[in-house]
Amino acid sequence: MHFGKESIVEFRYRKLELARLDWRRFAKSDNPVAAALLSRMGYNERDRRELRLAYLRMLARLHPKLDDAKLALVMSIADLYYRPEPEEDRSILRELQARDPEEAERVMELMPAWKRWGYEEGLEEGLEKGKEKGIEAGRAESVRKLLAKGFTPGQIADLLDLPQEEVAKLRDSH
After folding, report:
1. Residues 36 and 59: beta-carbon distance below 8 Å
2. Which of its termini does the chain have fewer beta carbons within 10 Å around, N or C?
3. What distance in Å separates the CA atoms of residue 8 and residue 1, rounded to the nearest whole number?
4. What is the enclosing helix (H) or strand (E) of 134?
5. Could you give the 3-state DSSP secondary structure of residue 2?
6. In sequence order, what are the beta bridge partners of 2?
7. What is the pLDDT of residue 116?
8. Measured on CA atoms in the order 88, 94, 97, 99, is the torsion positive or negative?
């Protein structure tokens, strides 16, 4: 920015191309920015698992040095770029568990992605159970209505394609 011929503010910065940097140079660092950006550095698919393991170890080292908000920020940035697969991370955790159970425990406490997957699995399970209960309630309602209209349990079983025992159970449950 200039005022007349005088320069008032001047910015100078260097461009840093993360994809050209070797992630191994930063894996042992205690720099939270390096941890957050590790997954943007140069690696190939063969290195993916090794990079993820190094990143998780960095998190375990950084945890005592960062407050929860800063650690969550580092982890969310890294997961955004890395896009971890649930099975891949579970496998890495099993490997870490075999090598160093204490470190694996510390890592597991930090993993938002694993918590998210657990939540999503629980949500899916809850939806499935809710759907099953809804179907069962609908069947019970149908059985009651058909009985009220004078249908026999045998006819209802044929109409709804249910075993007669289930028709009797649904009839007796309401």
Report:
1. no
2. N
3. 6
4. helix 112-148
5. strand
6. 7
7. 53
8. negative
Asked if 66 and 31 count as a contact pair (C-beta separation under 8 A), the reply is no
- The token pair at 113 is 């992605």
Residue 20's SS3 state is: helix
CA-closest candidate to residue 55, choices 68, 69, 67, 71? 71
- Distance between start and end Cα atoms, the chain: 80
Beta-ladder partners of 6: 3
- Band (pLDDT 50/70/90 cuts) for residue 118 is low
d(CA 59, CA 113): 13
Pairing verdict, β 6-7 and 2-3: antiparallel
Tokens of 103: 């470190």
Residue 106 has pLDDT above 60, yes or no: yes
Q: By C-alpha distance, which of 40, 14, 114, 110 is closest to 71?
A: 110
pTM above 0.70, yes or no: no
Q: Which two tokens stand for residue 174?
A: 């309401």
Q: Does the pLDDT of residue 88 top 70, yes or no?
A: yes
Residues in CB range of 65: below 8 A, 6 or more apart: 30, 32
Per-residue pLDDT tens digits for 24-50: 888 888 999 888 888 888 888 888 888
DSSP summary character for residue 42: B
